[in-house]
From TrEMBL:
Residues 92-154 form the 4-vinyl reductase 4VR domain. Pfam families: V4R. It comes from the Bacteria. It comes from Paenibacillus kribbensis. This is 4-vinyl reductase.
Length: 154
């Protein structure tokens, strides 16, 4: 048994402890999409706003990353998407996410569906920088944009 502390809370490290034999380590992306879009975006009040912020920040705080670079690497490793810094100013950074999990979904103009992933960034960066950081989704494939993009403000 993988009991690491007396406090019964899962850590991100626990998430990597996978001992099932036949089914392996991966789940298909349609399951992630179903949870995100059918369950959260469509299933929760206000398209999940509020809940995604709470859930995303909590996940972000749990990530074992210590810099923006490490965070973007982890986004790549987890196959959420391929993030790249496209604008860097004193109080503002823009991160474009190519090959986002939402790429290929039907376009719905006016819809931005990757807010949870932005909230994950926000939670992680708040912990790393120890200063209030705000992350906002400003572009999304589903909206018809060329990629998904986040504005990070410090
Ligand atoms: Zn997206």
């Amino acid at each position: 048994m993988n009991k690491t502390s007396s406090v019964q809370e899962f850590t991100f490290d626990d998430m990597k402890k996978i001992s099932r034999t036949k089914m392996g380590k991966s789940l298909p992306i349609e399951l992630y999409r179903a949870i995100r879009l059918i369950g959260m975006y469509q299933g929760l009040p206000m398209k999940g706003k509020g809940t995604t912020v709470t859930v995303g920040r909590k996940i972000g705080e749990s990530l074992p990353v210590h810099s923006l670079e490490e965070l973007l690497d982890l986004f790549r490793d987890l196959k959420i998407g391929d993030p790249q810094i496209v604008l860097e100013e004193e109080h503002k950074i823009h991160v474009a996410v190519k090959d986002c999990f939402c790429e290929g979904l039907p376009e719905m103009e006016g819809s931005m569906v990757c807010d949870l992933e932005g909230a994950i960034m926000e939670g992680a960066l708040n912990k790393i920088i120890d200063k209030r950081v705000y992350v906002r989704e400003i572009k999304c494939n589903v909206n018809g944009d060329e990629h998904c993009e986040y504005e990070i403000r410090f």
